[in-house]
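Students often ask what a 'structure token' actually looks like in practice. Rather than answer in the abstract, let us consider Peptide/nickel transport system ATP-binding protein, a protein of 328 residues. Its sequence is given first.
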Amino acid sequence: MTPLLEAVDLHRHYAVRTGRNPFSAKALLRAVDGVSFRIQPGRTLGLVGESGCGKSTTGKLALGLIPPSAGEIRCESEPMPAAGTAAWRTLRRRLQMVYQDPLGALDRRLPIGEQIAEPLVIHEQAKPAERRERALSVMEAVGLQRHLLTRYPHELSGGQRQRVVLARALITEPRLLVCDEPISALDVSIQAQVVNLLLDLQERLDIAYLFISHDLRVVRQVSHEVAVMYLGRIVERGEAENVLAEPAHPYTRALVSAIPTVGSKRERILLGGDPPSPANVPPGCSFHTRCPFATAQCRSEIPTLQPLADGRDVACHRVHETPLRLVA
Ligand code: SF4
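Now compare that with the structural description of the same chain:
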């Protein structure tokens, strides 16, 4: 099947100063460093990893909001047009973003009905008379009552505001939503409602999601496939049920071991230290400074993604030593 969206060897590098002095040397910050994935129509790819691993940058690259330093994004096999062009604006109707902070994503001075309909104005998609009806229709789809049309963001609860953000993203009838930590700013009681809404919308509207999150508990609920990022690279990707039930990469194993469970005696794997800076990526396997299984080979050779029998790919020199089980 033709993927809806495909990332091919994406890189996004930035030149950054190494000190506060404006004349200090520059280093290359490798925010995204050779990332590839596919998202099929109506499916969800969960993109997980610690803060600063490049997840959000990957989301922006996926929508063409920032250009890659190398590699490309393809939408239904066609290369992503350059940002700002008419072709890109046309494509963007079908690829929308849902941000982490609903209050920050909304204009406090505008009634929510106007904000929900705004993408129709930007994309010149509907006549003025139709926009109100389209806004009401999409509000109903996300469970917002009609009388809220004239309310302002500060008059709504956190859950209602995230529904407004979703309604605004859905009004152009997109095929893909990039959801960047869409529930992390919400109360725990509201998070489940928004997750259920996302699942329900996917079933009804056949939308695909790139679901970016550090919360594997939620990623497990919503994702068909999972890609785990560490320092700008994907270290493991595959079917969510395989990767999260039996993680193969030592980093994925540590992340999965931290998922709270009820009644399970799973041992928590604690990683030493913080991830290194993406402006100073260690040689070899970038995880070797925190990996309990690191060998001399790990410190000098970059592992590439290798396929395992269950269809997943894992970037680890030692993954084949014993199937899915590393021996220290
Ligand atoms: Fe650990 Fe080596 Fe595998 Fe990297 S390649 S995850 S350092 S065992």
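One point worth highlighting: The longest strand covers residues 26-39. Ask yourself how you might have guessed this from the sequence alone, and why that guess would often be unreliable.
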